[in-house]
What we know:
Elements: H1 7-20, H2 35-38
Amino acid sequence: MRQVQSDGSIAVLQKTKQAIDPKNVFGIRNGIFTDADLG
């Protein structure tokens, strides 16, 4: 995804997802939401 979105926009999406779904109830772990990208 880094070819399409800036590091800043990815960080915003990851932090938003973490705030909305901290326990991963929705089960989203693909694309920019993989464990490797969440750091």
